[in-house]
Amino acid sequence: MAQRYVRVKTSEGQIYYGLLQLNRMVNVLDAPPWLGGQATDLNLETENYQLLSPCAPSKIVAVGKNYGAHAAEMGTPPPKEPLLFLKPPTTITANGNPIYYPKQSQRVDYEGELALVIGDRTKNSTIEEARNKIWGYTIANDVTARDLQKKDGQWTRGKGFDSFCPLGPWIVRELSAGARIQTFLNNSSSPKQSALVTDMIFSPEFIVSYLSQVMTLLPGDVILTGTPKGIGPMNVGDLVRVEIEGIGALENHVIATDN
């Protein structure tokens, strides 16, 4: 099994990066792993930590309509260049935490995605250089208030509510080219979304290179690479699970917002 890099909070409130062991013990690192963090003598038992999102990025950059079949279901042709948008870091929530259904929306959708974690400062990178700037891979759900996205004509509000970017549960360094991404609702055995990551229009390294011509990417930044076809609504009480082969599963319940 691939090494799983996590970010945890102890019962005393301290936050660490670490390596998750098969017995769920966490071997604490002395720094984020993409900054050269090394193993320490500190090990945390399961009852002594809470799993957080696996990184705390300065920004989340997302790519829209990066699967041809999804572009078609949205009624648009495939984009000729990556379609970029930002989600604020406050959208991030960890595996197992709730997705809050905002009162302003009548239609909130799941969008399962492969997420990239940047390992080094990246500016004006070639595609070949970009391959080495991707430190690892995790799972994301680009939750979207679809009605607000359409109403506003731009995507900030519809994509930007707190908890609208479940991320995790951990980061792995390698991903098979043939990995499948699937999204399930309420433990159904039939996925709502299912595609190979190779079905992307623009590859991860192309996306990183393209982005780096626009903005400087910093260590720990997250890039969402787009969702396959099959997007659909979630309702209060639903459980949504996004799986990617070689990484694992990201699960979150949908609950009503309390304000």
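[next item in queue]
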Amino acid sequence: MLLLAAIIMLLVPAAVRADEVITASPYWQGFTSADGQGLYHDLMQAIYAPDGKTVRHLEVPAKRGRIMVREGTVDIYMCLPLALAGMRLAAEPMYEGEYHAIFRKSAFPYWDGTNSMANKRVVWRLGYYAARDFSVPIQPSETHSGVEALERVVRGGADFYVDDLHLINESIRSSKTPLDENEFRIESVGFRQYFPAFTDSPRGRELLETFEQGMRNLSDQGKLAQIYEKWDLPMPRTYQQ
């Protein structure tokens, strides 16, 4: 009987276990990591742990994480700028900020903001951005990693690598291709918000409501600012009012 019970538990989708909330995302330094360190982890713990729920994180590629949320095997994907089919976004963001482009100075000696990117080759990580994120027409392409995107710029295969500033710096540190930082320039090229995405189901809607109420409670108690300050990241403006 014990063996049968154990087998049944293994067959039950993880996302339907009431005492556990499962999140998923790629590794983003300062936001998520397999050891539970980062802004997003701290927010999830602060919101769901008081209700007696264990928060477990799965480090997966962005595309796979979104599929898992739609399938219901994961509760929350952290995070998305826009809603996708089969997923529901929270009303307020977990993070908001600028995204940047790194490029060779000699190729663009007279930087004119995003106008300088018109009709140029712009590369980013798979699924992270889209041509609509830019005010001028571009030649977009995607790679599987920030390091690969950066190296395409270094080697001349692309003009700009676009990413969050934290992730550009992470790619620079991880790159094996020699890079003289004095030859490159990093500039802000846009601003957007990132929202946690929940499974579009009764359970997902319940967790979404808990998240939204939890963020408001943390803000009212003065605890939300402390979490963002810990990671030296800006708190969304809606909670600064």
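[queue empty]
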